[in-house]
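Standup, Tuesday
Yesterday: got the pipeline producing structure tokens again.
Today: sanity-check two examples.
Blockers: none.

Example 1:
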Amino acid sequence: MRTSWVEICVSDLPESIEWFAKVLDFKLVDRDTHYAGLRRGETTILLGTDDGPYWSPEKERIPPAGSRGGGVEIVLMVDGVDSLYERALSAAATIVRPLQDQPWGLRQFWVRHPDGYLIRPAQGIRI
């Protein structure tokens, strides 16, 4: 049973599914017209379309595509962050901050989803 997950509102469901697969190696596990479930290891991300019934009550508050997620980052703890970084580079993803070791014990990089969500894949390291 999943105990928690992230759901994000996307402007283009097929594009977002492809982006998460190409850039961050997520696999599609569930899909309908306005919804998709993606998984990578133990991490689940749900995508909902901004024109679907689930997000319709929030429609007027949803920022336009490309400017969503301001002030929030989604941290993904992963194994093999170096190879994931190379994958993101190969996919021509928008890298916001390059791969580097941080003094708080993580090796990480920041990548931006086409709708503007900031995603930080990270791996624990010894400091």
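Example 2:
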Amino acid sequence: MKFHYRTIEMVVAGCVVVISLASLFVAVFQGVVMQRTMEASVMPLIQIGHGNFNAEADEWQIQIEVSNTGLGPAQVHYLAMRWNDQLITDTSQFMAQCCVPDSVPEADRLPYMHGLFRDGEMALIFDDVQMRFLAPQQTVEFITFDQPDAETQARGLAVWRAVDSVRHDISFETCYCSVFDQCWVSTFPVQSREPVRQCVPPTSRDG
């Protein structure tokens, strides 16, 4: 009889352990689901676009825009641009390479660009996005380049038109993180997005 009671006690204890483990599993699973639900509810999504006409201002203007089309804020750690597989680190140098008339000798191309800026034949406006928080549905005009006047800024207009042509050959890479420190690297116009442990700028990776 004692053996019978002991068997029942062991079965009951085993059931208690199983129920406790099942409850623990359910609690952990619910915690994971809730965490993922919270992360999804504030997930950012950075998009980069560009064009050559400002409809609101009704004027020709090259714009590169960075938008957060996601549900939560995004901290942009870097935004990199490449042309001909080369990282663009200096806008004047890039424009000297891509967009100065072929009649200008190689050694004079960068001074030519500097002269256009100095003489007011064209102007670029930058709004830095690096290490900046973008709210959901917020758009930042990263670069704005007004079309120069054909009569008074003819040299600048020629460069503007060249930039308008080559902007389609520029690729973009950005890394940004959510409020939960989830990070992604996105590329455009390829439209890829990959999760990463942390944001490492291209200069650090390439170097």
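Quick observation on example 2: The mean pLDDT is 87. Residues 43-206 form one domain.
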